[in-house]
Description:
Blueprint: E1 15-18, H1 20-24, H2 34-47, E2 51-55, H3 61-73, E3 78-84, H4 87-97, E4 103-110, H5 113-120, H6 124-139, E5 145-150, H7 157-170, E6 174-179, H8 186-199, E7 207-212, H9 219-228, E8 233-236, H10 250-259, H11 261-264, H12 275-286, H13 307-315, H14 343-352, H15 359-375, H16 381-393, E9 399-407, E10 415-422, E11 425-432, H17 436-448, E12 453-461, E13 470-478, E14 481-489, H18 492-512
Helix pairs in contact: 2-3, 2-12, 3-4, 4-6, 6-7, 7-8, 8-9, 15-16, 17-18
Bound molecules: manganese (II) ion.
Manganese (II) ion (MN) binds at residues 23, 180, 211, 213, 242-243, 247, 520.
Amino acid sequence: xxxxxxxxxxxxxxxxxxxxxxDGEQSPGCTMTGEEKMMMAQQLARLGVDTIEAxxxxxxxxxxxxxxxIGHTIKGPMVVSLARTRLDDIDQAAEALKGSxxxxxxxxxxxxxxxxxxxxxxxxxxxxxxxxxxxxxARRFTPRVEFSPEDATRAEPEFLVRLLSEVVRAGxxxxxxxxxxxxxxxREMNTLIRRLINEVHQGDQVVFSxxxxxxxxxxxxxxxxxxxxxxxxVECTVNGIGERAGNASLEEFVMVLKTRHQVYGLETAIRTExxxxxxxxxxxxxxxxxxxxxxxxGANAFAHEAGIHQDGMLKNPLTxxxxxxxxxxxxxxxxxxxKHSGRHALAQRISQMGYELGSxxxxxxxxxxxxxxxxxxxxxxxxxxALINQNLAADNARFSLKSLLxxxxxxxxxxxxxxxxxxxxxxxxxxxxxxxVDAALNTIKAITGMDCRLTYxxxxxxxxxxxxxxEVSVGVESHGMNVSGRGTDLDIVVASAKAFLNxxxxxxxxxxxxxxxxxx
Length: 520
Ligand code: MN
């Protein structure tokens, strides 16, 4: 393999191209602000991904800024922006990233008969010409140019060979094969990748990549089939978030290679002990919860309920455990800190958990920690994590909760009195509801004047015990836009109010940052 883009190309090395911040973030309920994307990008760098797709710079000014900031801040991974084959898309991607230490451009165009005819209204010849022109244009800015024929798994293989050969001649160094609609099967994917490596011009000298969607639950299986056929990059997302049923899950793909190393003999640069924290951070930032039985990072992934399993586990963990929770960074909840712990102890624990906070941020987290420790005897890692994420996510919020008083009970109409800070001004109101949560949310809605409806509402406890913090997640919809929100507190009505405000802040941010849509 020729090294054309200075990225690692040992024969057994699989590059992890993370698209959590692009494909993941563009999916319903996963919207993040620029600041939240930056926090996630820093975590992805700690996790050890090779490439971060930071967004689609031409989608909106907000996306442009976020791609630019991530590119100029992140050290380690290559940072790329998605771009359609329109030359001004490529100009915007280059404009956002030029001057940053390690960057590239990822351009794409539809390649299936359906996409060419109905989405693009272009002939196959026109598609080839547009792709070549885009890749040549991108090469003027950077040697790292990835090309994707969108909807490749429903394209004519002969046409793919022709299109990809032309873009390699034009200078593309990575050829990514997207299963845009999650339609293909492992055997088909394996056959397609083998054929493309053999038939595309210099197919043995470029890196083949895949981007699989999970509509049939096959995204990780199809990614495995592709690497068995010789693909050396996989595009994936933390928690498998992404359009519709999502993308191939990073943690599942990486842990298959690690756990079954004897079968595949393939390596990634992922530091797997950071997987769990990456998953938790994403959940906190997007408000999008992970199902309990989700492989690797779900709450039950390492839980052994059945007596016979527990008995075996005690005698030898290998009886029912193919990988350890520690290998993905899951530690048993342990007593860490209490109300007598000082700032230094908290700072040390936070840094052990992998967070890097500035002194101002640490002060804010320490103050909330003291409040929590006064109310709750034992403060677990999960509690601290919730405090950190809540404090960091609160930056630049339009709406914040100043006070909340709710009256409810067996013989009274539930009523809430809420005081919010809205764009720096304090507003107070009271309203009734069908229950305490309904009353609180009604009052908040009246104060903010946001036109929206709640699509889901869920309460979990962060740790065990009746003094555990409640973690509330909500979904909110407004004019076809879906966002999620999350809040934690010892009081579940307060947690509900925080979660609702978190969603409303995200909605307000998204409404002032409209974007063009891309899909891939
Ligand atoms: Mn996609």
